[in-house]
Write a structure and sequence with these properties.
Helix 6 (158-170) packs across helix 11. This protein has helices spanning 4-19, 37-53, 68-76, 94-98, 134-143, 158-170, 182-191, 201-209, 257-272, 274-282, 292-313, and strands at residues 26-30, 57-61, 83-88, 110-125, 149-152, 175-178, 196-200, 214-218, 244-252, 286-291. It is an alpha/beta fold.
Length: 318
């Protein structure tokens, strides 16, 4: 009994300490350069969290190696809730491409909190390839196989996998031009250095609405409200093709359950807030509330599916 009481006291003290979370600034690591969709979601979440919890949430950009540097930094951080990762779809693509090269496990090294936003993928072309429709685009690719290029935020990114799947379905071919984030890829696409991109709508919507890029199709089941005149891939003749991107909060593995619950509740409130829906809609995104076990199941399924696709297509970044 004498031993039990001190242990109980320590547990209560630990619980009290966690209840005060956060007591100091929280870092949100982003594996891309500033300006891309993952960065935008992270900054919106950080702003909301800072106001909701009365403590500073700071976004730290750590681009490079297809977000491996950022994910590795978070996986090595203390599981105390003060270092978080704003991950994206490509997080579950890392095992498919890098296998034994990475020093963390995309599933076991992290505590999934919530996916808080999603964005459909859209096929856009720039001035170097002024196609006016999907049929025109495919005709140009097949007339000059291997000549045209597509930009992505990096090898193994969601755009890379999305384009590989598109080329597999259509029998076309293009050369891959990887960047270290969406912002530079979009800039070079507008400048004519690359021809096309299967990009998240959030990363190219302003350029589409301003006429600097042309959207040929959206990879979603239905047309999106932001681009009502742009057909789906199915309507454009590429049947069975769909792709979207998620953005979500993860923490290091071993996060105390009370802190996880508080971060999950925060994430749900962020996704449900009217101001979040309005700001995301303007960026071509929608709020999402896939949390806890549901988020974990989604990540597990994606790791399996992308690994199978990488094997089928011979994709590797070793």
């Amino acid at each position: 009994m004498k031993k039990i009481l001190p242990m109980l006291a320590l547990a209560l003290l630990a619980g009290a300490a966690h209840a005060a979370y956060p007591e100091r600034p929280v870092r949100i690591i982003v594996g891309f350069s500033p300006g891309g969709p993952t960065d935008v979601v992270a900054r919106a979440f950080a702003s909301y969290a800072s106001q909701a919890l009365g403590q500073t949430f700071v976004v730290e950009n750590k681009p490079g190696a297809n977000t491996i540097l950022a994910a590795e930094a978070v996986s090595k951080a203390a599981p105390d809730g003060y270092t978080l990762l704003m991950g994206a779809t490509n997080h579950t693509m890392i095992p498919a491409l890098y296998r034994d090269r990475v020093k963390f496990d995309a599933l076991r090294s992290f505590t999934p909190i919530c996916a808080v936003a999603a964005s459909p993928t859209v096929l856009v072309v720039g001035p170097a390839l002024p196609a006016v429709s999907m049929a025109d685009f495919l005709a140009r690719l097949k007339a000059e196989p291997g000549k045209h290029t597509y930009a992505t935020p990096g090898t193994g990114s969601s755009g890379h996998f999305a384009t590989a799947r598109f080329l597999q379905l259509t029998g076309a071919s293009m050369n891959h031009i990887p960047y270290k984030g969406a912002a530079q890829a979009v800039s070079d696409l507008m400048g004519g250095q690359v021809d096309s991109s299967l990009a998240t709508l959030g990363s190219v919507l302003p350029q589409i609405t301003s006429g600097k890029l042309a959207a040929l199709a959206v990879a979603s089941p239905r047309r999106v409200p932001q681009l009502p005149g742009v057909p789906t891939f199915d309507e454009a003749g590429v049947h069975g093709y769909a792709a979207d991107a998620w953005y979500g909060v993860l923490a290091p593995a071993g996060l105390p359950d009370d802190i996880r619950q508080r971060l999950e509740a925060l994430s749900r409130r962020f996704a449900a807030a009217p101001e979040t829906a309005a700001s995301l809609k303007a960026l071509g995104m929608q709020p999402r509330q896939t949390c806890g076990a549901g988020f974990q199941a989604q990540l597990t399924d994606e790791v399996r599916e992308y690994s199978a696709l990488a094997r089928d297509l011979g994709l590797s970044a070793e």
